[in-house]
Amino acid sequence: MNVFQEAAIVAGKDLRIEARSRVTMTQILPFGGVVLLLFAFALDQKKILRQVAPGLFWVCVLLAALLAVSRSFSIEQQNGARDGLRLSGLDGAAVFLGKAGAIGAELLVLELVLGIGVVVLYGIAPASIGVLLLTAVAATVSVAATGTLYGVLAAGLRVRETLVPLLLLPVVAPVLFGATRAFELALHLHPHSHASDAWPWVGMLSLFAVIYASAGTLAFGTLLEES
Where are the domains of the chain? Predict the structure, then answer.
């Protein structure tokens, strides 16, 4: 098997576990919806809500990503599952790509649901769908790759629940800023803004995605052996 076939096995394993446990559907999705709803009540003005909607959207995604990353590695704490993963003979890069792919797939589903919530609660009409989709994919790849890398780094520690956010937030801050700016421009939330103005931000996010995914692919195997 090649790396991508092995990655598909790992991703399928993680997604099947989530499908059976339904943690994403019963905890992470409602969590994101509650955050959006709370901000809708706190900022009870349509104009303000429209202006801050992209930032709130990505904050919700980040909080959900922290839960998803913690969940991805906590399920392997029981019954020596992580030892089994080490002894499986799978390439470290494949394990990284599989786990990051599973987290990314969960986040994309969450983003779709949150996007519908933003449209309904904040009264934003979707515009420049292509830019929004590319922005979401590039930012999600960056967040999932970074979360997977730092997740395995902290996996063997008792303080992993608090350590992962401390490690992850500074690294993904530029990604969240770029994604927020791209969304603002794509949704024409600023006067005289055009969707074409978002393309430099999309390019920056794509570069971050390549860098973070490459770093994770190279380093994950060693970190998994030592965790």
Answer: 3-226
Which pLDDT tens digit goes with each residue over 168-199?
Answer: 889 999 999 999 999 988 887 776 667 678 89
Q: How far apart are the first and last CA of the chain?
A: 25
Q: What is the pLDDT of residues 199-222, one digit of tens each?
A: 999 999 999 999 999 999 998 888
**Inter-residue contact 61 to 92 (CB < 8 Å):** no
CA-wise closest residue to 110 among 205, 187, 28, 183: 28
The candidate with the shortest Cα–Cα distance to 144, out of 101, 92, 201, 202, is 101
What pLDDT, in 10s, does the model give residues 46-101? 677 788 888 889 988 998 888 888 877 777 666 566 666 666 677 888 889 999 99
The sign of the CA dihedral 189, 191, 196, 200 is: negative
